[in-house]
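Quiz preparation item.
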């Protein structure tokens, strides 16, 4: 990388749906290299220069950067052009960025920056088990509890010490049309695809309880004596709920499709089937990332103020829905698959 080493990246930045550390990009303004581009609860992108428990978040609109850094109006500064492109992206998770940065012809200083942190990969090992366990059983006839992560499994496949396992690996390689020594690399590439699915699945699982609590709060508002005849409040509640529930249902449906396509994958292995599953999952990365980013930001803003059903009172909740929750709702509705 340029001025900032890869190991200086914070795990929270690499693993986030809504944070893009600008140090990974070839920006020229020195101050920007230590800033982050973030999505706020209104789904707007702003540049964050500092953030801390005691200092709060120091943010600046992208449009205010020319005045802040004394950039000329014409021609527009190249950093401003790049940031305006990035502001239009729906998610800053690493899997969406791999696709969207390439589409926008934006390079990164180090491709390793577009990978999940080691701590996150370890955290997703339970989700990855749906991918790894059938594979190990297919080749070795059982699961070894000493295998803690996908990297351990790759080592096992690089150095099989059982004759029967080597024969099964040869059969797998033949079906895939590759050499046995290329099999670990193939599995590593496909493992990354499945890791993306695990990452998105975990993001959804973390959001769902908050969505359920939010919907219960909407029911409390709609049935209350105070607001049941308030047309504006009821309309806002209905609009926000229908948008959030529709997006959650759509994402859930996609995961069900992915799970059906990957079921018994190793039993009926072929290069064509691998390619089909890979294209299917990768083709929805930006859509799923965008939806999950929007849902997580909205639900995060809600849970921060109203951590439980009795928190804040009905009037405060209704006001928050009319103001903050409605902001960006059209952007959420406008997120569409890029097929």
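Solution:
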């Amino acid at each position: 990388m340029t001025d900032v080493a890869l190991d200086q990246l914070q795990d929270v930045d690499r693993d986030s749906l809504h944070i893009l550390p600008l140090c990974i990009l070839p920006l020229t303004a020195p101050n920007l290299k230590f800033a982050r581009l973030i999505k706020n609860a209104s789904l707007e992108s702003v540049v964050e220069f500092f953030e801390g428990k005691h200092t709060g978040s120091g943010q600046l609109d992208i449009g205010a950067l020319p005045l802040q850094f004394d950039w000329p109006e014409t021609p527009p500064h190249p950093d401003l052009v790049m940031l305006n492109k990035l502001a239009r992206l729906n998610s800053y998770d690493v899997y969406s960025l791999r696709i969207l940065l390439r589409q926008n012809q934006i390079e990164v200083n180090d491709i390793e920056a577009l990978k999940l942190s080691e701590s996150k990969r370890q955290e997703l090992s339970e989700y990855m088990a749906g991918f790894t366990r059938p594979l190990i059983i297919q080749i070795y006839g059982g699961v070894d509890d000493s295998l803690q992560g996908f990297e351990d499994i790759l080592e096992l496949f690089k150095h099989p010490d059982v004759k029967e396992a080597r024969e099964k690996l040869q059969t797998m390689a033949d079906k895939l049309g590759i050499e046995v020594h290329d099999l670990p690399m193939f599995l590593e590439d496909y493992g990354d695809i499945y890791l993306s699915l695990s990452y998105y699945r975990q993001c959804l699982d973390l959001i769902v309880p908050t969505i359920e609590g939010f919907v219960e709060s909407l029911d409390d508002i709609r049935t209350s004596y105070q607001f049941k005849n308030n047309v504006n409040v009821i309309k806002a509640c209905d609009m926000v709920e229908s948008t959030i529930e529709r997006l959650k249902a759509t994402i859930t449906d996609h995961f069900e499709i992915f799970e059906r396509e990957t079921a018994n994958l190793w039993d009926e292995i072929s290069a064509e089937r691998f390619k089909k599953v890979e294209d299917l999952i990768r083709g929805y990365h930006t859509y799923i990332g965008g939806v999950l980013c929007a849902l997580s930001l909205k639900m995060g803003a809600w849970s921060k103020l109203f951590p439980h059903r009795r928190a804040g009172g009905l009037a405060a909740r209704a006001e928050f829905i009319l103001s903050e929750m409605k902001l960006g709702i059209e952007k959420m509705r406008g997120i569409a698959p890029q097929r």
